[in-house]
Amino acid sequence: MTRSVAAAIREALLECDPRAKVMATRKAARDWRLDRLSFAFDVDMPDTPGRPDAPELLPPNRMPKRGKGGSERGRIALWHALAHIEFVAIDLALDMAGRFGREMGETFVGDFLAVAADEALHYALIDRHLRLLGSHYGALPAHDGLWEAAHKTRGNVSARLAVVPMVLEARGLDVTPATLERVKASGDARGASILQRILDDEIRHVRFGATHFADVAERLNEDHDSLWKALVSRHFGGAVKPPFNDSARLAAGLSRDLYGSLACS
Ligand SMILES: [Fe+2]
Ligand SMILES: [Fe+2]
Question: How far is the CA of 60 from the centre of ligand 1 (A)?
């Protein structure tokens, strides 16, 4: 009997070791693409994914300040923070596909498994970069808040899509170009090319989120923009932070009309 896609996703979610999670995620995405998994949801997704013993996870307000300096320590802190974001992003994409795949259909599952495979690659590229800088993922504490948005929206696919790809990942489009410029200016060409690749991929991730959100709004017969605003207010405290990368957001299918009205100053 063919294995279910849910079982493959659940196994990757529960993996604690980062390298094993990367491998299990890429395998699940590949097996789905090659039609080796059935569209079946016979197991539930875990409430909490597997995590390695390190990094220590701290509440965001207890994180040591990273500073802006170009020191070796500052560079390592930057790449470590990015490694953690990509590591949690693997679980966010897996959980999206595994938790909501049954109601959303096969294209949705394929889209978010492809996102999970991208995040696994992003994580692996950054971890290798960190090692070349003499550190590794787990060497510093990381903040604990990233999974929270997923947990809060576990009961509702429209809320999950509104918050995770359309607010959190879209925020990545806003902040990455400035980080990329800083990294380039410091002479780190390899780091800059990793960030460029991530930025290109993240536009596609946000677009998947926006496309499937539009489908859900239509299915519910709700006004797209009002539904998004209501969900972001309810599940994300309401305001999104400028400055916005309008061109990348537009390429991802987010119009200024949509997020502009929720912008805090
Ligand atoms: Fe990513
Ligand atoms: Fe992403």
Answer: 20
CB 116 within 8 A of CB 28: yes
Dihedral (CA of 117, 149, 78, 246) sign: positive
Element (H, E) at 58: strand 57-58
Contact 63, 140 (CB under 8 A): no
Say whether pTM exceeds 0.85.
Answer: yes
All domains of the chain in start order, with CATH: 1-37+65-143 (1.20.120), 155-265 (no CATH)
157-215: pLDDT as tens digits: 999 999 999 999 999 999 999 999 999 999 999 999 999 999 999 999 999 999 999 99
Ligand whose nearest atom lies closest to the CA of 84: 1
Å from CA of 222 to ligand 1 middle: 30
